[in-house]
Write a structure and sequence with these properties.
homodimer, 359 residues
Chain lengths: 359, 359
């Protein structure tokens, strides 16, 4: 099994709850899709070509500042469990984590250092990415952009003067940029305003996904809001637009929470404490129920109803209660049927020690 | 408001969890219906007659051993809240506790000392009663029977040589005896065996009711099992029959619990701890939910799954979470809408201090 403790923060600085608006926004991600001009794209690459691409990228990366000390994970050589672990830490896409081995291309790799990384031989030759705690679009983009510049000086990216960066899938052509903000919106869900808000976002070119990106369902009222288009606007305009829209969503969520506090304080308090009570004592928890209960507890912590419970602890629970993390803690594969009891035990221990620590 | 602390144990020795089989049986009650030969029965009595009956009974009672130091409550002069309080402590019948004032007859009274008492001017002139902790038919009957003998030496009871004791309602004629055992049967409910068992009891002349006697619904899997007939058998035979049948029910319940432990230990443990978690943290609890959660926790305590939680504490919660007890704790009437939050606060405090006390 891989040892992620070698990463400065286990690859999880993004969930430490230190960033701006951490009570609502878990993390901000920016990724840039890039391809080498000298190689065929995506599914057209041969095994040899992919090995060559990885070799070129790795050599270039290690001479940059951003990835000079990067850890390198050969995803095609990792156990499915380890790939899943990287995915659950939001370090690699679901595509590269699939337990379905044939879908992981040969020479697929992750280079990662601090909060910046690059996936190699995913859908594109390169997916540069940055992931920060809280609502922090500018800072994340700055980091990824520096890496982009550094690599661009060493590698010839496929670039078209009219269209911009060329990518495997036309939806990414142009800036190759996708920025997303992982935000917790229980107030809008409870006040039933969420559909109106999501509909509004769609009309201004934004889209939403669940906790684990494309194709993942929304659970626990966690939404990833991101830009849908990558073409026809500058990176700054795209980020600026997304940022403004997220600010509006944050304002709506805060408003919804105030409405709940004013109109139904008793129901709200009961709801969040029941969630806490179940997490604290249940002996079996499904993934979905855990996310929903964590959502309730997070809302309570955000409103100051549950004191002495840190967002870092709650964020950590989101990740460490996932199957591969539970298996990793158990030292290896765990039968599906054992996951709910292991998950409940883990949650209990964390909340107990948090209660003791914070008294 | 009345001060029940003047009763040796607040009138609640029956729930102290000290009696036989206390993990399953909360209490055993025996009552004897008696009437004075010199007065008309039930609804035919006038106000003056009822005053006379009470005076005669009280004078006789105070010269007995059993009720020499009895406290006397004039139910017709008590606040509805106080009447309810006595009912919730299982000291007077629902009929005498009704908030519906006209149904409480003038001169209705309760005399009570230790675990023995007498209701006066209820359906019959006299309802002698005993209430003990646990499964203890013989001892309860002994106490009530002593009171019956003592009063019978001082008062002329209506008695027919062929039919036995005469009562207002023909269903009580004969021995005038009703014995009931308040038993907790979550195992039989969870294994869906309960209907078969209750059907079997009906076939051998027994009946069941809820926590608060005739007409009360079964909540929290608490059943009052009692004899249906009072005629044609001696008191000893009636008690012996009920006792044997309750022993069988106890055996069935124990068996059901073993089945649950064997077949679904994880589900069982999860169920009881979730109940505990909700009681410990909810901010609003309805009466019915409280009973159901207490049922789960009681099952857990009985199976040793929840350590350090006493049956006395759990039994007390059954009584003190009732409306009149919550109002009494608040110093007077409490609006219906406030009861759920007060109930939850009370339950929380009791479980917290129990956890601290038992560490």
């Amino acid at each position: 099994m891989i040892d992620l403790s070698l990463l400065a923060d286990g690859g999880m600085a993004w969930l430490d709850g230190s960033g701006p608006e951490s009570h609502l926004v878990l993390s901000t991600r920016v990724r840039l899709a890039r391809n080498l001009a000298s190689h065929r794209f995506g599914t057209r690459t041969t095994e040899e070509e992919r090995e060559a691409i990885l070799a070129e990228v790795a050599a270039a990366a290690h001479s940059t500042g951003s990835l000079a000390r990067a850890m390198e994970f050969r995803l095609d050589r990792l156990d499915p469990l380890d790939r899943m672990l990287l995915h659950e830490r939001h370090l690699v896409s679901k595509e590269l984590a699939s337990p379905d081995a044939p879908r992981v291309r040969s020479a697929a790799a992750l280079l990662v250092q601090d909060r910046t990384g690059a996936m190699v031989n995913e859908e594109d030759h390169l997916r540069l990415q940055g992931l920060h705690s809280g609502f922090d679009l500018k800072a994340v983009y700055q980091n990824v952009s520096r890496l982009d510049t550094e690599l661009g000086q060493r590698l010839a990216f496929a670039f078209h003067p009219e269209f911009g960066y060329l990518t495997s899938c036309p939806t990414n052509v142009g800036t190759g940029l996708r920025a997303s903000v992982l935000i917790h919106l229980p107030g809008l869900v409870l006040t039933k305003e969420i559909n109106k808000v999501l509909h509004g976002l769609a009309q201004v070119g934004l889209t939403f996904r669940g906790l684990y990106g494309e194709g993942s369902e929304v659970v626990g009222n966690f939404f990833q809001l991101s830009n849908q288009t990558t073409l026809g606007q500058s990176e700054d305009d795209l980020l600026d637009h997304l940022g403004k829209m997220v600010e509006r969503v944050i304002a709506h969520e805060e408003q919804a929470r105030q409405v709940l506090r004013r109109e139904a304080p008793g129901i709200l308090e009961d709801k969040v404490w029941r969630a806490y009570g179940l997490l604290r004592y249940a002996r079996s928890l499904s993934f979905e129920e855990t996310m929903n209960l964590l959502s309730g507890v997070r809302l309570g912590a955000g409103l100051g109803l549950i004191p002495n419970l840190g967002f870092y602890t709650l964020n950590k629970l989101l990740v460490y209660t996932q199957p591969a993390h539970l298996a990793s803690a158990a030292g290896g594969e765990v039968p599906e049927s054992e996951l709910p009891t292991r998950r409940a035990r883990y949650v209990r221990q964390v909340l107990e020690s948090e209660a003791e620590r914070r008294g």
